[in-house]
Design brief:
The chain is of the alpha/beta class. Helices cover 50% and strands 7% of the residues. The chain has 18 helices and 5 strands. A 5-stranded parallel β-sheet has the order 2-3-4-1-5, with helices on one face. α8 links the parallel β3 and β4. The longest helix has 21 residues. Bound molecules: zinc ion (ZN). The site of zinc ion has 9 residues, from α4.
Length: 355
């Protein structure tokens, strides 16, 4: 990360003003895919830079910036769940003996059968104690970045809270979260909470255009208007699977839930539920407001389908998908899970299938 995203300028100016107003703990909150982590990393790099420019950018040349670029800055720690990072073998061993606890997790793309933990555990919080108790190696700040903060399990959260209650000197904690309400209120209250901005549509389209995305507007719609998610999912397998899935569930005459469940069972389950949620959202949205949000190229199909669906049943089904989204992270049998939600969908759409 060599800069912030263009829609983050304002918040950048605020957070880089002076150390006193920044305090010792920041909580960057906002939806997934808007560049919170990149922002936090660049903020850390900038604050550790030994010769920051007058335009408030990291110099990229000082020893600190070079350390940072190589991922081994001695005064910086990135704390993430094992599922999204490379942890030491010692902690991995501990993780395997840890019981699965209770937090809800954001949709991920872990495809391997043996899933690494999606939680931040207490050993990871303890592991940076040495850093915060000693003076910094480079004479400046010591920075701990925790991402996503809501994945801390209960023990980890309490261990962190201790640090926040007695803030060590010259230390900055940066917590990044998609789900602030899943954090302990006592943690939230000890941080300066920053609502991270989502770019407006024009800015997001411009930016994606610069990144070489072919049809930025349609791509943004598919992923729910989070620009970084467009880059993440800009691979052929994802796009083809999505297109094929939507085609199946919108071609009701030939729709076969059993067949589709079998076809999709190896794919990331929360992602599939999310596709179904967005599709049903568009059906309701079209029914109520005449407009759609995600499937811009499917307007004609949606127009034909909607009049035959009972809106109350559809609303009920969409609500049930919220619970299914949560359960999809823990499902043991993907095929049965998908059969269940797709058969319900088929029953909901039945009147449209007859005609
Ligand atoms: Zn520098």
């Amino acid at each position: 990360m060599n800069d912030i995203y263009p829609w983050q300028n304002e918040v950048w100016q605020i957070l880089t003003q002076d150390q006193a107003s920044r305090g010792h703990a920041l909580l960057l909150r906002g939806r997934k895919g808007i560049g919170k982590l990149g922002f936090a990393q660049y903020l850390a790099k900038f604050l550790l830079c030994e010769k920051p420019s007058s335009e408030k950018k990291a110099c990229e040349n000082c020893p600190s910036c070079k350390w940072f670029a190589q991922g081994g800055h001695p005064d910086f720690r990135l704390v993430e769940p094992e599922a999204s990072s490379g942890l030491s073998d010692e902690i991995k061993t501990k993780l395997r003996s840890d019981t699965e606890a209770n937090t809800e997790i954001e949709p991920g793309n872990t495809k391997s059968k043996k899933k690494p933990s999606k939680q931040i555990i207490i050993e990871q919080i303890r592991a940076f104690t040495d850093l915060i108790n000693l003076s910094s190696h480079r004479g400046g700040y010591k920075i701990i970045l925790i991402h996503p903060a809501e994945t801390m399990n209960v023990a980890a959260a309490h261990a962190l809270l201790k640090n926040l209650e007695e803030p060590p000197s010259q230390t900055l904690f940066i917590l990044v979260t998609h789900r602030p309400h899943h954090l302990l209120p006592t943690i939230r209250s000890r941080c300066w909470q920053i609502a991270m901005p989502t770019p407006d549509l024009t800015l997001a389209i411009d930016w994606l255009d610069q990144q070489g995305i072919k049809d930025p507007k349609a791509s943004l719609a598919v992923v729910g208007y989070a620009p970084l998610a467009v880059l993440e999912y800009n691979d052929d397998e994802y796009l083809l699977q999505h297109e094929s899935f939507i085609k199946h569930i919108s071609t009701l005459k030939s729709f076969n839930p059993i067949f589709l469940a079998e076809k999709m069972q190896k794919f990331d389950l929360p992602t599939v539920v999310n596709w179904l949620q967005k599709w049903c959202y568009d059906l309701i949205s079209f029914r109520i407001t005449g407009s759609i949000r995600y499937h811009l190229s499917m307007q004609d199909t949606i127009k034909v389908l909607v009049p035959k669906i009972d809106p109350r049943q559809l609303a009920r089904y969409l609500r049930s998908l919220i619970e299914m989204q949560r359960l999809s992270h823990h499902s043991l049998n993907s095929r049965l899970f998908l059969e269940e939600i797709l058969i319900s969908y088929a029953m909901l759409m039945a009147p449209s299938r007859i005609n």
